[in-house]
Design brief:
elongated; alpha+beta; two-stranded antiparallel ribbon; Gtp Cyclohydrolase I Feedback Regulatory Protein, Chain: K; 5 strands
């Protein structure tokens, strides 16, 4: 596979990162991984939602473990932390980041920021 050249000033250095949101107990280690992946002056972006259906909550409302059914009918367990946008912004800011989390329609929100 060929990699494409990145424009001058690109802020991302490719690294292996876990997929999906971290569980709350691992939030700080995930933040440290993102910090390590950012080039100096780099920024990050994410999009998420706080939506979990009752059918997905296989271990109850308080659990971050859900079961999702794909279009092909297969089911998979995933970690889905239903973050509140305002609380998520405060939490990330307390870790020393400049961050803005913006709610959109329904349960969706997006955030962007960088090191403080």
């Amino acid at each position: 596979m060929r990699s494409r050249a990145r424009p001058a000033g690109a802020s991302w250095r490719p690294r292996s990162t876990p997929s999906g949101p971290p569980v709350l107990e691992r939030f700080e280690s995930f933040r440290a991984l993102v910090d390590d992946c950012l080039a100096p002056g780099g920024r990050f972006f994410f999009a998420d939602d706080g939506y979990r259906t009752p059918d997905e909550l296989i271990e109850g409302d308080a659990s971050a473990t859900i079961r999702r059914r794909l279009h092909d009918g297969s089911t998979h367990r995933a970690v889905k932390v239903p973050h509140d946008p305002e609380e998520l912004e405060r939490r990330i800011a307390r870790l020393g980041w400049r961050i803005t989390v913006t709610p959109t329609s329904g349960p969706f929100f997006w955030g962007e920021g960088g090191r403080a």
